[in-house]
Amino acid sequence: MSDPKPELSLTDQTVKLLQALIRNAAVNDGTPDSGNEIASVRTLDAFFGKALDVPGIQSEVVDPHPGRSSLIVRVPGRDPSARSLLLIGHLDVVPVETAGWRRGPFSGEIVDGEVWGRGAVDMLTLTAAMAAVTKQAIAQRSRLRGDLVFAAVADEETGGDYGTGWITRNRPDLLRADDALTEQGGMLIDPSRPDSGITLGIGEKGRSPRRIHVTGVPGHGAVPWGSRSAAEIAAEIVLHLLRNPAPPVILPYWRSFVHALGVDADLTAALLDPARVDAALPRLDDLAALGHALTRMTVSPNIVRAGDKLNVIPGEATIDLDIRVLPGQTAAEVDEWLQRTLAPWRESIRVTGSLFEPGNISPTDTGLYSRIITVFREQYPEALPAAVIGPGGSDGRFLRAQGTNVYGFGLYSPRLPLAEFRGRLHANNERVDLESIDLTTRALAKIVLP
């Protein structure tokens, strides 16, 4: 009889599962029939195997639309009164431009100590680690005080209508928990310093998209002189918005981030001064754009449409604005700022859209927040915690709205600091190093199974 195969370590399980999830190519292009997360749900089902048949373990697959599947597993703890913890990771990834990749974007291959493929950093590594730790928790249930919930969800990349958004609206019981861990935390800010800042996600900006409708004077394209094209007006507005951003607002999380940068006192003071922060931001180099986004409402004119015939001067145009708001900012503030900023064109435009999703934030005085910092310091003893928010949206907003404390988690090696991590999000040649996978998996196990 041959010897049984040795059991894989938690990290090895995470690596193999990560490779499989990458190879599933769950590309979400924003259309209802894309994503095909059901393939990754099947991969997870095979990974858990008989663990999901253990008495007391509850598992359910949710399918709001054919192929748009999410898997939820609940592991009961020994103390019903203890705080429950949700581990939530998404399965979908954004599209790729294959020509820009040096390796196959869905190969999942390991080259020079890195796993390559779309989703490696956003966020299949953490999703795979969550699955591996949950499987171990099922085998070691006696160590769990409160309930543990694992959710691998669809459609995070385009708003969650077929994933967390749908579940919280229609089956909130499945994701109900006191605390939750999700993506984007645990990156060093400056790995060359032992006292580098290390990020811990506590929230995210909200969104308030708007559309500007522009009215010009149509005419024949062969005689453009003296005309007032809607395309011309739209171009003026776009340039004005880009050159005149909303004013900075200094909030507590920005102070935490700045103090963790480790820069000199003069630059620190400038970054915390609303009157001087814009002039100081370029000194942050690769983090300047992030700093700009974290200190104000951002207004990005991303889609401009005008004209449909070459020889006709367009009389109508539209500009779609991607507006991201800070925690505490309101829809009224958005509309008032747009009214003031667009005043020179008020006779030629109207603004539509009323959607408003507020920025959201979790407290930093909780037991889980403290536990995360303790785990971070076991790996990086001198690191300074930097409570940060995400400039974009995540599934965390749905959970915070139902009362859950949500924190961005992970633990990454010096090879993948904050600027490099952010540079790989939705970019060509996305990849994650094996040390970061190991650190993240072991750190998560310490949180779940202390």
* Proportion of residues in helical segments: 25-40%
Q: Tell me which CATH architecture of the largest domain applies here.
A: 3-Layer(aba) Sandwich
Fill in the CATH topology of the largest domain: Aminopeptidase
Output the structural class.
alpha+beta
Q: Round the Cα radius of gyration to an integer and report it.
A: 24 Å
The pLDDT mean sits at 96
The tally of beta strands, per DSSP, is 19
Instruction: Provide the β-strand percentage band.
Output: 15-25%
Oligomer: single chain
CATH homologous superfamily grouping of the largest domain: Zn peptidases
User: How many structural domains in the coordinates?
Assistant: 2
**Distance between the terminal alpha carbons, to the nearest Å?**
38 Å
